[in-house]
Amino acid sequence: MVNREGAEVVVAGHICLDIIPKFHKANHEVTLDPGKLISVGESILSTGGVVPNTGLTLGRLGLPTVLMGKIGGDLFGKATQNLLGQQPHSFIKQAMIVSPVESSSYSIVINPPSEDRVFLHHSGANDTFSSDDVDESVFDGAKLFHFGYPPLMKNMYLHDGREMVKLLKRVAGLGLITSLDMAKPDPDSPAGQVDWRAFLNNVLPHVDLFFPSYEEILFMLERHQFEEMYQKSVQTGQQMKIDEGLLKQMAAELIEMGPTVVAIKLGSEGLYLRTTHNEACLKRLNLILSSQVSALWKGRELYSTCFEADVVGTTGAGDCTVAGFLFGLLQGWGPEQVLTSAVAVGACSVEAADATSGIPSWKTIEARLSSGWKRHPVSFNSVHWTESESGVWKGLSDGLN
C-alpha cells in the first residue's frame, strides 16, 4: 500500500500513454494525405488522460494528490508507471489498478503548432474500470474526488452511467466533494451512439462540480446543432464559434440536472461558470469552504478569457485548467479568484508541448498574476457581460433568485 498521508484530492479515471511527435514550425499546416511522408522531430513520451494531466498539475501546484487509473501489465503500462514515478514532487502518490490480462491505453497525439490536436486512441484497460476496482483506503483524509472521461471508458457510460453513479454515490457517502470532467467520444464509435442526455440526467444529481467543454456538451445535449456547427467549421477551416445564447441555455439545463457548479471550457475563448441557487446543493461546498465563502457561490454567472501565452501545444490544457479551478477551490477562494486560477494554470500548460511540464509552482503563477499578466479580450458577443475589478466578466443577471 502506498503512503497517502495528507492527500487532499484523489484524481481517477482515464489514463493512457501519449506518444507526441514534435512538429517543425515550418510544418504548421499538416494534412494527413494517403502516402504522404511528414518529417517530424523527436517524439515526447508522456502520460495522458485526466489522471496524469489534472493530477500531476495539482501536485505541481503544491496540493497533495493521489493518482488512480487502470492499466495493463504490458510494456505501455510499465512505461506509464515509470513516467509517473519520475515526477520529483512529493505531493504526488500513485494508486494504480493493474490488470495483468489487459492492454494499456495509448494515444498518438498529432499536435502541430497553431492547430488543434488530433488523437489516435486505444482505450485498453480504461474500458473495464469499475467501482469494485477502487480500494476505499485511497480516500482516507481526502476532501475531493475528481473523475474524468467516462465517454472514453465503456463500463462507466453503459446503462446510462449506472457504474458511474455507483462510484459517485460511494465516494459522496465518504464525505468527499465529487467532481466530473468529460470527453467527446468518436461519433462513429459505440460511445457516439449513447443517449448522453439520459446519462447526464442519471449521473449529474451525484456530481458537485461539472467540467464539460463547449463542444462536448453541445454534442451531448444538442447533437443536430453540433453537427451543423461542426460541418461549418470544417468548411471554413476555423474553430467552432461560441454561441453565447446556446452556452447559457446549456449551462442552465445542466444546473437543473443537479450539480452545484458547472464550468464549461471554451478552449482558446476561456472558461464560463454557472452555479446553482439550490441551498441543499450549496451546503455540500461547506465540506471544503467556509459558510461565508460558500454563499459567494450562490446563483453566479461568470466568464473569463484566457491569459496571454506563448502557445507551444494544447494537449491537456483543459485538464490543467480544471486543476487550477480545483486548486483555487481547495484554497477556500470565491468564484472570481477560482476562475482566475483556472485560466492562469491553463495558460501555463500551453507553453509546453505536453500537458504538465509547463506548470510551475503556485507561487510562480501568483507572481506572474501580480506583475499584470494580461488576459485576451472577449472575442464573442459580450453584450450581456460587465467586467469586474478582477478581470473576470460578470453576467448582468448574476445573483438573481
From TrEMBL:
One Pfam family recorded for the sequence: PfkB
SUPFAM superfamilies: Ribokinase-like
Taxonomy, superkingdom: Bacteria
Keyword Cell membrane on entry: no
Carbohydrate kinase PfkB domain segment(s): 8-361
Keyword Transferase among UniProt keywords: yes
Keywords from the UniProt entry: Kinase, Transferase
GO MF annotation terms: kinase activity
Membrane-crossing segments per the record: none
Family, per entry: Belongs to the carbohydrate kinase PfkB family.
Protein name, per record: Carbohydrate kinase family protein
Organism: Alicyclobacillus dauci
